[in-house]
Amino acid sequence: MPPGSDTVDFTNAQKWAEGLAERGRLPPQGGDPPHGGGLDELSRRVGVLEADVKEIKVDLKSLVKDAAAIKERLAGIEGRLSNLPTTFQMLTWFVGISLGLVGLVFTIARTVALH
């Protein structure tokens, strides 16, 4: 919209919406309801929707149970990971053991060399 103009140009928006409708991503606007409409048709369609909602509720309950099980497993994994030694701790252990073994080898070598 140019400065000072009171009108908005929707040409590009209209083309965009038409492109979406052509690709089946936007429902057609206006007109009669599908299948001729009527109260009987509406009741049938509402019944189908209600049945679908029941299935969705069952699926949702299953997903909630699965999510709870995943949370429990994740908590267990986090607990085990928190008990693992860090890299620094492992490196310190390795250096300490190595120095101890080197000292032991030198002590044995010195003792054997003296006899």
What does this structure look like?
The protein has 115 residues and is mostly helical. It has two domains: 35-84; 85-115. The protein has three helices and no strands. It has helices spanning 11-22, 39-83, 87-114. It is elongated. The N and C termini lie far apart (102 Å). The mean pLDDT is 81.
Overall tally of domains: 2
- What structural class should be given to the helix and strand makeup? mainly alpha
Radius of gyration: 37 Å
Put simply, the count of helices is: 3
> What does the largest sheet look like?
none
Globally, the shape reads elongated
| Uncertain ranges | none
Beta content: under 5%
In N-to-C order, the SSE pattern is HHH
Rounded average pLDDT: 81
Portion of residues within helices: over 70%
- Strands, count: 0
End-to-end Cα distance, whole Å, is: 102 Å
Oligomer: single chain
Write the layout of secondary structure elements.
Blueprint lengths: L10 H12 L16 H45 L3 H28 L1
Give a quick precis of the structure.
By secondary structure, the chain is mainly α. The protein folds into two domains: 50 residues; 31 residues. It contains three helices and no strands.
